[in-house]
Amino acid sequence: MRFHLRGDISRLAKGLELLTMELDVNFEEGGVPIEIIQSKGPIEVSYQDGHGKITYEKPIHFYRAFGLFLEHFQKGKAFSEKEVPQFTMNGIMLDVSRNAVMKVEEVHSLLRKMALMGLDTVMLYTEDTYEIKEYPYFGYMRGRYTEEELKVCDDYAHALGIEMIPCIQTLAHLKEALKWNYASDIQDTDDILLAGEEKTYHFIKDMITSASRPFRTSRIHIGMDEAHALGLGKYLEKNGYQDRFSIMNAHLKEVVAITDELELHPMIWSDMYFRLGSKTGGYYDLEAEIPQEVMDAIPANLQLVYWDYYHTDENFYQTFIEKHQEFGADPIFAGGVWTWNGIAPNYGLARKTTDAALSACKQTGVKEVFATMWGDNGAETPMMAAIAGLQLFAEHGYSREVDPVRLAERFRFCTGGEWEDFLLLNEFDETPGVMENNLKESHSSKFLLWQDVLIGLYDANIEGLPMNEHYQRLTQRLEEAKKRNPGWSTLFAFYHQLAKVLSVKAEIGIHLKKAYDAFDKDKIASMVKQLGDLREDVEVLRRAHRKLWLDTNKAFGWEVLDIRYGGVITRLDTADDRLTDWLDGNITKIEELEEERLYHDAPWKMPEGALGRNVYHRIVTASTFSG
User: Fold this and answer.
1) Do 169 and 77 share a domain, yes or no?
2) Which residues in the chain come in under a pLDDT of 70?
3) 235 and 195 Cβ atoms separated by less than 8 Å
4) Looking at residue 604, what is its pLDDT?
5) 113 shares its domain with 147
6) Is the peptide bond before 404 cis (omega within 30 degrees of 0)?
7) Of 110, 157, 192, 402, which cross-links 162 as Cys (Cβ 3.0–4.6 Å)?
8) In this structure, what CATH number is given to the domain that contains residue 525?
9) DSSP result, 229-250
10) d(Cα 466, Cα 431) in Å, to the nearest integer?
């Protein structure tokens, strides 16, 4: 398609050039004329009698508007559409600290899709995955970004009207950064910095300086969430027990003095104030009492980020937003698209929480929001698998209520993907035995993939449920989805193979135990052959996952998943040998299969509607990984 853009497009030219990588368009004399007008107010796009018109306020609004124009233009009819932006900031936070560090070119690809969606902000969450030249062990062998890489990303984002904001930690969540000897004098606990220590603030200044230097923005996210053991490690030894509100505020004051010196505008996660004010230590405690003097001591130029990925009740969000507004400054809201802990995105929970949360934000006047994409426990879920969740955030940003039909159409245009096919990934965890929309965060596919076939710590949880049948149907549906999404073939190839593996592996431990208990040697002999086929399918899965990872992320971090897949493969090999020895009479019993299968509900009692959730090392063994 050929277009001639009329008006001042000097600020937009570079972004338009970048978007030609996503869109089949050319800009030249003789093309369809489109008048471009920048003015305050809503986005407007129209086409009539051979002429087009786009009205926009901010560059990001133009790129969304241009996408809207093209989407309608392709239908060959006259059109007119208006959208009113609901937020002054609507973007994403991408976790690049849990092993998966997205390649620069993949960040660029994501930025292009975000521009078409109209998302205007991106934070790369970097605990230790950015370069601090004074500390060579900071992020060592973790795929950290160089200063130049971050600058290139910022330039690319700026061309597309997107603000990149550094997002780091200056108190807790620094376990990987603090594990080296250079940090011995600045540790409170293994993941929390030592508050009140002069050396700590020299280190934090180097962190903030290095993290902010590549970016043109003056904003910075300095973290400070989930410091549960604040003041209870080396700090306690040096100072005795101190009021933790006082420790927090004193530390924050020192860090904000650094951001002031560097002329930066900081934000922090808000949970520590609410946890410290709660008798139970909970974040979402509606009875939490934060002393007025504590609120008064929070720096006036600091914004609080209210993060909440869990509630489906709009009224709860409204109440908690109002509690944040009592601090005086306008809060920022952070929701989630549920990429973490599992091996597939939880779209059911993401959609329910996002709809409730962003509706509440509109009702209460919150103007800045973003969607978090965490990668807890090894970043097993490919971040781009959850891109439909970003489209949902985007559509909330341009309408009071989201039209599901338009949502799917916009997703197809902005990403080349089919909405329903991406939502199909939800069925990896929303299995038989799991409540609708998986609101209790069951990670069925994760524990079924990694658990040991002889030990089967989660076998009792799925006893009697048709899991193999569920994944067999999913395998067939993903085969068709793969064909409908050629631009996402590597992603769907991985998930198709995962479903194929789970269609056998899900219940194999249960069948082994039953056959062994019945002394059914014929059945066991047939299952030995099945184990060999399964081992080959797991190897195919490993390679599909590896290709997806290496296409998207830096190589560092993949070794963790290689080791996890290797564990499955070698344990299948051991199971083969153990069963064969028993069949041949070389051993009289298989100790692992002698044990009764108990229901797995640790470390938290399993809620109704969930089958299990856990971190990798609690899935694969009841033994210890260390010490």
Assistant:
1) no
2) 627
3) yes
4) 82
5) yes
6) no
7) 157
8) 1.20.120.670
9) TTTSSHHHHHH-S--HHHHHHH
10) 9
Q: What is the pLDDT of residues 80-115, one digit of tens each?
A: 999 999 999 999 999 999 999 999 999 999 999 999
- Give Dmax over CA atoms of the chain in angstroms: 86
Counting the structural domains of the chain, the total is 3
- Strand locations in 296-341 (E): 303-307, 332-336
Q: Is residue 161 part of a domain?
A: yes
Q: Is residue 625 domain-resident?
A: no
Chain mean position to CA 395: 19
The enclosing domain of 79 has a CATH number of 3.30.160.230
Tokens of 425: 């990934």
CA-CA distance, 481 to 559, in Å (whole number)?
A: 29
Give the dihedral sign, CA 177/180/185/190: positive
Evaluate whether residue 421 is within a structural domain. Answer: no
The DSSP symbol for 383 reads G
Residues 475 and 412 in one domain: no
Give one word for 532, left, alpha or beta, with left for phi > 0 and alpha for psi -120 to 50. Answer: alpha
Closest CA to 321 of 384, 268, 269, 366: 366
Residues 6+ away with beta carbon under 8 Å from 183:
177, 203
Same-domain pairing of 145 and 180: yes
Q: Do residues 542 and 564 share a domain?
A: yes
Q: Name the residue type at position 430.
A: E
Could you tell me where the DSSP H helices lie in 302-418? 314-325, 347-364, 387-396, 404-415
**Cα–chain center distance at 31:** 41
pLDDT of residue 459: 98
Distance CA 611, CA 623 (A): 21
Is the domain of 611 the same as that of 473?
yes
CB contact at 8 A, 128 and 180: no
Strands 43-48, 51-56: pairing kind: antiparallel
Q: Contact, 103 vs 564, CB < 8 A?
A: no
* 31-65 tens-digit pLDDT: 999 999 999 999 999 999 999 999 999 999 999 99
CB atoms within 10 A of CB 405: 9
SS3 content of the chain, % helix, strand, coil (to 5): 50, 10, 40
Predicted local distance difference test score (pLDDT) of residue 627: 64
Whether residue 108 is found in the same domain as residue 79 = no
The whole domain housing 73 covers 2-83
Written as one string, the DSSP assignment of 520-571 is -HHHHHHHHHHHHHHHHHHHHHHHHHHHHHHHHB-STTHHHHHHHHHHHHHH
C-alpha 207/C-alpha 131 separation (Å) is 9
- C-alpha 576/C-alpha 585 separation (Å) is 14
One domain for residues 487 and 599: yes
